[in-house]
């Protein structure tokens, strides 16, 4: 079939057709690569693979939109929620009356062919936003999609193949901040965890998410825990690593990004606090990461208070010491008046914390009054200042009385509990049954509304009167 035997033989005709009809066409070049899937080694030996790849790369360098339109990166500040589903889909550009317009897509290729072509495009400085668009189209087709490939597809969507794909795409992803929407990175990380991808793959995705964590929402951090050994509902360890990556890479002198992420962590804690299996150490470690990064700022503590309130409500079994440990991360001086008012009536909080909150309210009130007095230069306002001073003085007296009343209750309760403990240890049953006298233990039960036997657990519930049968 060569020119040795006769001119214009089959080999010459095939090469002429390949060079003049296949390579100049985008569609035919991709179809040729797909046809070579079954004879990949032979096609590579004949340089057919390199020729098709080179033709595709050259066309993309001339027109990057062949890879798809760049994704629109929607931040958390966008109010248009109607287009959320289509926010990250490339825009479809219609071209009428143009021959050989793209109908074939690179995402149809298998990963052994797709990966080197994309890598070559990156090396030749194809705009990265177009490369990222093609990568996520590939993921949508072979990993994120619920539909399985047909018999003619070069890939299968089995678990092992999906893991290979997601590891390869992670290696190809650009490192630049903000180029890829964080919601897609989060989706990719969750898939990598489910598919048990290599540690390097998951670490790389966590680093990318950490670089732009200030653009994330709580939903992006709700990564379900995997494996039978996982007790908690969400993968909080992964969130910790993402937070550490963000703080270690944050180089801006503007602390607004730190405040945004701290508020994100507060909302995340409020979301996961309803998990009954969320451990105390996990809650505290996440809260401490948030607090340490925003030290010295005027960040409001209402979000942290809300998370603590939910955690204490869902974990009623905590001891007094553990409840105080939870409240240790709360800065009462940065709580709003509404939050302080709620906390002052919150029975789930330890008494010491409630007193501390009331004391901080008193200090705020005193500071506000002092600033008003110092900021009034006109002597004609002297009378008004005196009236305000009198009013604030009354309010301070009332607050001080409330704090003293609360403190006296605490001291009294501690004394009574200590006396009750000694009474139980002494086991003075004769003293308890003395006629005409009320023991300290019985007095305590009366005060607590608990007049039933020591062996009955629900002492606040009155026993129904049972009449003997007639």
Automatic annotation (TrEMBL):
Keywords: Coiled coil, Ubl conjugation pathway. PROSITE patterns: NPH3 (PS51649). Residues 100-364 form the NPH3 domain. Pfam families: NPH3. Residues 396-430 form a coiled coil. InterPro entries: NPH3/RPT2-like (IPR043454), NPH3_dom (IPR027356). Belongs to the NPH3 family. This is BTB/POZ domain-containing protein At5g17580. It comes from Solanum pennellii. The lineage of its organism: Eukaryota, Viridiplantae, Streptophyta, Embryophyta, Tracheophyta.
């Amino acid at each position: 079939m060569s020119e040795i035997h006769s001119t214009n033989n089959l080999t010459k005709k095939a090469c002429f057709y390949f060079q003049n009809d296949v390579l100049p066409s985008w569609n035919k070049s991709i179809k040729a690569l797909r046809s070579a899937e079954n004879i990949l080694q032979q096609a590579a030996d004949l340089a057919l693979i390199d020729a098709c790849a080179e033709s595709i790369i050259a066309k993309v360098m001339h027109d990057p939109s062949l890879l798809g339109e760049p994704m629109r990166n929607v931040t958390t500040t966008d109010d248009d929620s109607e287009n959320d589903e289509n926010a990250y889909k490339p825009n479809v550009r219609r071209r009428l009356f143009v021959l050989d317009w793209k109908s074939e897509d690179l995402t149809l290729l298998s990963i052994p062919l797709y990966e080197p072509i994309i890598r070559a495009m990156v090396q030749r400085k194809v705009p990265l936003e177009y490369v990222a668009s093609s990568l996520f189209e590939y993921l949508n087709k072979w990993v994120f999609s619920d539909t399985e490939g047909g018999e003619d597809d070069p890939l299968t969507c089995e678990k092992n193949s999906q893991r290979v794909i997601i590891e390869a795409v992670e290696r190809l992803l650009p490192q630049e901040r903000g180029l890829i929407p964080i919601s897609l990175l989060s989706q990719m990380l969750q898939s990598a965890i489910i598919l048990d991808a290599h540690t390097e793959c998951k670490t790389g995705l966590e680093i990318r998410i950490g670089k732009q964590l200030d653009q994330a929402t709580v939903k992006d951090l709700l990564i379900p825990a995997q494996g039978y050994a996982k007790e908690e509902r969400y993968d909080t360890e992964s969130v910790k690593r993402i937070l550490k990556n963000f703080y270690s890479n944050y180089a801006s002198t503007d602390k607004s990004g730190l405040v945004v992420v701290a508020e994100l962590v507060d909302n995340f804690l409020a979301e996961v606090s309803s998990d009954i299996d969320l451990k105390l150490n996990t809650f505290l470690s996440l809260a401490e990461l948030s607090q340490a990064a925003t030290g010295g700022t005027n960040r409001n503590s209402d979000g942290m208070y809300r998370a603590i309130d939910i955690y204490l409500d869902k974990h009623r079994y905590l001891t007094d010491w553990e409840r105080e440990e939870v409240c240790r991360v709360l800065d009462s001086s940065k709580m709003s008046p509404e939050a302080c008012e709620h906390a002052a009536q919150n029975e789930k909080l330890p008494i010491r914390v409630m007193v501390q909150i009331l004391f901080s309210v008193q200090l705020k009130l005193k500071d506000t009054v002092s600033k008003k007095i110092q900021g009034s230069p006109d002597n004609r306002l002297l009378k008004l200042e005196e009236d305000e001073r009198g009013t604030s003085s009354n309010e301070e007296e009332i607050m001080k009385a409330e704090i003293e009343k609360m403190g006296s209750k605490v001291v009294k309760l501690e004394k009574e509990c200590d006396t009750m403990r000694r009474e139980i240890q002494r086991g003075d049953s004769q003293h308890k049954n003395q006629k005409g006298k009320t023991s300290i233990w019985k007095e305590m039960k009366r005060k607590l509304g608990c007049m039933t036997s020591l062996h009955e657990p629900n002492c606040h519930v009155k026993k129904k009167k049972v009449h003997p049968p007639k």
